[in-house]
Write a structure and sequence with these properties.
The structure holds two protein chains of two kinds. Chain A is an all-alpha fold. Chain A has twelve helices and two strands. Chain A has a two-stranded antiparallel sheet with strand order 1-2. By secondary structure, chain B is of the alpha/beta class. Classes of the chains: A mainly alpha, B alpha/beta.
Amino acid sequence: MLARLAELLRYRELIENLVMRDLKVRYKGSVLGFLWSLLNPLLLMGVFTVVFTLLAPNTAIPKFPAFLLCALLPWNFFSSSMVGAVHSIVGNGHLIKKVYFPREILPISVVMSSFVNLLLALPVLFLFLALFRVPFTIWLVYLPVIMAVQVVFVIGVALLLATLNVYYRDTAVILEVLLQAWFFLTPIFYPAEIVPEWRTILGIELPVRRLTYILNPMASIVASYRSVLYGFTNGSPPAPPAWDFFSRTVVTAIVCLLVGYAVFVRHSRRFGEEV
Amino acid sequence: MAIIQVDRISKRFDLQPNRPRSFQELVLNGFRRGRRARKEEFWALRDVSFAVEPGENLGIIGANGSGKSTCLKLLTRIIEPTSGSLAVNGRVAALLELGAGFHPELTGRDNIFLSGSVLGLSRREMRRRFDEIVAFAELERFVDIPVKFYSSGMYVRLAFATAINVSADILLVDEVLAVGDQSFQNKCLGRIHQLRASGTTIVFVSHSLDAVRSLCDRVLWLDEGRLCGDGLAEPIIRRYLQHVHDRAESEAMAHLRIRREAAADDAPSQDNGRETTDVTDGPAHPRRVPNGQRWGSCEAEILDVAIQGADGGERYIAASGEPMRIVIAYRAHRRIEHPMFGLAIHRDDGLQISGPNNVFSNCDIPFIEGAGHVTYAIDMLPLLEGTYLLTAAIHDAKGEYTYDYHGQSWSFRVVRGEVGERYGIVYMPSRWEHTPSAVIEPQEAN
């Protein structure tokens, strides 16, 4: 395992180059290339703002665009990484069958290039926060930590998905549907606070809000982002995420990475034959 | 210390034709529990060991499916062995991934650096080699345009130049390099020879034995995944050729035996008239061509045509320069005076090479009645490598009336034997002489 990590480190330049390739190709051919990648979250933000402030004003949340954007950008990082990673092994079959390099580089570089996109979008996020007069606080220092935790989680899932798609080629199709459901099940365009603490479903008393967090690591991650960037819907200013809550999120992310990596390493021995 | 150490490696491929390839199939198969996916195994390599010292040039030969490419893929670590161990101590460049990882939208320059990092070279190392690569590919003017605008020739040139200039310790080459035009191919081969001279270890897999001879000192011979030979190039190649020859022969024999048994069932009485001078269990048969023409009155019939080698054994493959006998088995249903037995040999494209008969050769056969054999004996077969067709006929003395005629009805193969010549159709028994003008006494050279 350690030898493998050392090898990965030796090939870090390949990750850099693959990320550069990805960004160059994405932004080449259009001067507005970078703006295009921002268009999706901004458009979604516009639509949700129209829906929740004009069409259904009862549920209005203060500074809604800012509220939305600080969850939407992390979500976009997550979903674009998933969509890219699921194809990363099969789509690069021509490379896998011809050259040796640590295979995990492919999904990792997909995640990293999505991450660079997130970083590039951050100034726009800050612009919106300033525009809606959300106070910037000292708790922004948590932001890099939260991002790091998300990267760990995303890489873990990306490795799993990339492996799965080698053996079951419709993983990508299923993922598309799952991501859509996942988006709505994650408190992105609604605050986590509106999820009831307890709810009786089919006669069973369930701690719904707790379950949301336990079953959905993205809910915890998005909540952490929102907590340090936006604050809370009742108007209280940004605050660090609760200590015990955040440490559980960290543990989840690390477990995800370890499991994803272990599965990937186990199966990547046979990628050369399967793709 | 060996630069490549392969220790008893085996590689098994699991062929699972019924394995579900998608979740959809997985779910559907769940309902049809009855036919569980059965597993088939295929051993591409079995228990192969060898070591390569630095600077050695190793060729790997063998028939299709013998495990050559699997062996090369194991060395590049693209696939991993099922058992055994393998150590490669040095940087490997493989000329089998030409252009893998090139992205059409990126410029030649970007792609060179990207390929370098795929091979594990740092940006700094690549910068040092950059000019050399571009010069070798002859693409100085185009290095800053996206490779999607390259012609296919430019593309492979860039790919080859990149792959071969990364100063690897070990160069793995699969098959003949069909890269670019003739002059670029020569340049590539020149470069490989240059690397070889400078001490780069080369592992070369090829069907072209001539290419292997010219590049490799040592040869591994794989057959059905097992190591059959390991040693100096020339003896191993000779053994390999002999093996290929023998196998083709034995396949042909098996084929003939089946045919003969079928024929024997049809006409059990046929053997009764046979003469006792037969070698082995009867004359052998070249392959019968399915759509050969036949006509004639059938008052005398050609029953079969056989080819015998120097040892008198039956065969359908003959070697250049060796003795060969063509034996015609006939049966005459009435007495025929002074018959003419004729043969014709055509190349498989229809060119007639010879057309002997016993009358031209002043060998008179007074009469035939009943069964018998006529033999056409060649002391030294002058035909060179190729496939040939045999015609046999019985005519009357003047060649005007045909009793039986089988046009191009049998085929036989000629393989390279003691004769060294390779071009054309025939070897003419001959020798070379050399007379330098400065020397007064003419000397015979051999």
